[in-house]
């Protein structure tokens, strides 16, 4: 019985040691990625002033699309949160606080009809 107890103690030490090394390595990996937090999507060498640099010559950025009711249901929307409001047909930004959002239109479609469908103007005959 004494040998069995020693074996368990040694095994427990080995497991604890392996876990410590794993946590240490994981911490080092996370720290190194946090030091270089800039990310380029679709290219290389992100701009030094940007945390996210999206690079493309043939595509754009698509913001989340939702109704005004869905937008108003967002809990504590961050300052500068952006979305496309399908009810108004406007790209909007929150210029208020998280407690009291103030949605401001940046740009709006001229015709609201094109907002209702997923068709592009070419597909809808406009």
Please report the number of helical segments: 4
Reported for the largest beta sheet, the result is: 4 strands, mixed
Number of domains: 2
Through-space gap between termini: 86 Å
**Helix content, binned percent:** 25-40%
Q: Over the alpha carbons, how many angstroms does the gyration radius reach? A: 26 Å
> What portion of the residues fall into strands of 2 or more residues?
15-25%
Classification by helices and strands: alpha/beta
Low-confidence blocks of residues: 116-126
Q: What are the secondary-structure elements, in order, as H or E?
A: HEEEHEEEHH
- Silhouette: extended
Fold and architecture overview:
The structure is a single chain. With 126 residues, this protein is α/β, with parallel strands linked by helices. It folds into 2 domains: 2-54; 65-124. It has 4 helices and 6 strands. The chain has helices spanning 2-35, 68-72, 113-116, 121-124; strands at residues 39-41, 52-54, 65-66, 82-85, 90-94, 103-108. The strands form 2 sheets. A 4-stranded mixed β-sheet has the order 3-4-5-6. The chain has a two-stranded parallel sheet with strand order 1-2. The chain is extended, with a radius of gyration of 26 Å. Mean pLDDT is 78; it is low at 116-126.
